[in-house]
Design a protein that fits this description.
Elements (H helix, E strand, L loop, with lengths): L3 H14 L20 H8 L3 H8 L8 H10 L4 H4 L2 H20 L5 H7 L3
């Protein structure tokens, strides 16, 4: 299910609701739009501005649970917002893709036999 528009709208609306004062950031001059700048959200979440911008465009499916948690903390999401389908689906799809990747890689003693054909 492609929910990019939904993710984009959700993240932008949450970013717009938070003032710099609320998260302990200094305010310098006037702002063209309400809320935090992308660079401020990225800094609060420990992400690069480019990566946060990619997430805000809706490409959140490959984000790790740690990234989603850091983003939730930076945007001051409450328990209800963290459980919304937009975020919950992304967490599930991220976990599922990591699980599939792990299952397809040979590991342990069988790895050598898989590569060499000897067992």
């Amino acid at each position: 299910m492609d929910n990019r528009a939904e993710v984009r709208e959700f993240l932008m609306s949450r970013r717009a609701k938070i003032t710099p004062d609320r998260v302990g950031l200094p305010t310098h001059g006037t702002r063209r739009v309400p809320g935090l700048r992308r660079s401020e959200v990225a800094a609060l979440a420990g992400l690069s501005v480019e990566y946060y911008s990619k997430l805000e465009r809706g490409a959140i499916g490959g984000a790790s649970a740690a990234v989603l948690e850091a983003l939730a903390e930076a945007l001051l999401l409450n328990d209800t917002e963290r459980g919304l389908p937009t975020i919950a689906e992304s967490r599930t799809s991220s976990a599922n893709s990591r699980h599939r990747a792990r299952r397809s890689e040979p590991c342990g003693p069988n790895m050598m036999s898989a590569r060499t054909g000897r067992g």
